[in-house]
Amino acid sequence: MRCPYCSNDDTQVAETRESDEGDTVRRRRRCPKCDKRFTTYERAELAMPAVVKKNGDRTAFDREKLRASMSLALRKRNVSVDLVDAAIARIEDKLFASGASEVNTPRIGELVMRELKRLDKVAYVRFASVYREFEDVDEFSRLIKEI
Q1: What DSSP element (H or E) covers 51?
Q2: How far apart are the C-alpha atoms of 60 and 137, rounded to whole Å?
Q3: Is the pLDDT assigned to residue 127 strictly greater than 70?
Q4: I need a surface site. Which of 28, 57, 62, 111 has the fewest CB within 10 A?
Q5: Please, which residues bridge with residue 104 across strands?
Q6: Residues ≥6 apart with Cβ < 8 Å to 90
Q7: Going by C-beta distance under 8 Å and a sequence separation of 6 or more, which residues neighbour residue 143?
Q8: Helix, strand or coil for residue 107?
Q9: Which of 103, 81, 85 is nearest to 94 (CA)?
């Protein structure tokens, strides 16, 4: 693995840890050249379904886009990166297990909301308010009363 700081090709694994679900391996690495540490994640590459957007466009599933939207909802909330990674892995597992060749964005949104509800109620409300495109305060109030 190449060092992201100095581009040295020879890095050493300092620690290896498997996720609770057993589907991801987290490795802490150290570069002997610049002595910096960094983390890598190893997971099986799966053929994820294509994402069908609201306008009908199709695009490849993007794990990092999913992470970015969840991170935005979780901004300034006390939720560990490991818990977010586990939530993303569960979403990917559900999408993969569906066996579908395509998945629409509302389905992904619902999966994200379910995971955020488990992780942090405030993040769930943040995400839902944007995702469901609330028109008025009453819709927002109903969502809060649900939780």
Answers
A1: strand 50-52
A2: 35
A3: yes
A4: 57
A5: 52
A6: 21, 115
A7: 125, 128, 129, 132, 134
A8: helix
A9: 103
